[in-house]
Input
Amino acid sequence: MRRFALINIVCTLIVITLGALTRLLDAGLGCPDWPVCYGQVIPQLNEAATQFSLWEFDSTKAWAEMIHRYAATALGLSVVIQAILLWPRYLGAVRWLGIFLVFWVILQGMFGMWTVTLRLWPPVVSAHLLGGAITLGAQFLIWRTLTSNREPNFKSVWSAFALVVFLQMALGAWTSSQYAGLACPDFPTCQGRYWVDMDRSIFDAPLVSGDEYLGGMLGMHQRMGIQWLHRLGAIAVVLMFFYLAYKQHRQRRSLNFVLAFLSIQIFLGILNAVLLLPLSLALLHNTVAMLLWLSSLNGMASQSIENEKDTPTEELLA
Output
């Protein structure tokens, strides 16, 4: 079960990376229908594809989208098998996280469908991106609980730090879904400004009937505000890390993991701005964000090992 859970973590990371690549290639509508692509299981330019007159067939984008769908489907099947294997063997968090993941990957599939049918509507796109992070986090906690023989400690400063990281990922998802990644091509300023005024308009996302969200709909000022809010979120994560290090200074190994990924993530964020969002760095920025998220959950699980009141897994066996 430990190996199975670890394999599912790797598979989840692959699916998330493929989703990010699809997004960065502007292939979110590479298949304008769902669950097939241009009416076909295997996308190809033929009579069926030409019937979609509003969307010109692009083989690269279509395959990027379909490979992501195939990988997500395989992960969903693996999660179902995992839940079936976990249910008779364990009680407590492991069992319920396994069941939660089954329902969650189904919801993720629905978000994937709505991403296409609602034509890249930012709230749905952001929810789909964050859903991937939740899937990865739940799968990681299953594996960590099995390997540590302890229940996760959900009531700790590590949980608070994980929440701050998650909220920052939410801001990153909103930045991506609104195409605001290039709104501030300089650092530490934004378009030469040391402060950008923000208002409610940065959260505007009217529904549209076509594919107007491909490339973004908001004006430059709104996009600058979104990017600026994302940068402020990064500062909040750093400040929260200092507080975490003060409160949990004995967990040096867990803190070192967080510090490493946080430092890399900040560096990548700066490079993405000044180098105008190159594909490789943007993709790496997404992956390291997930690793930072996992490192915060790892600290939460590691703390439970030091808590003698936690229940060992042997007592959780059904």
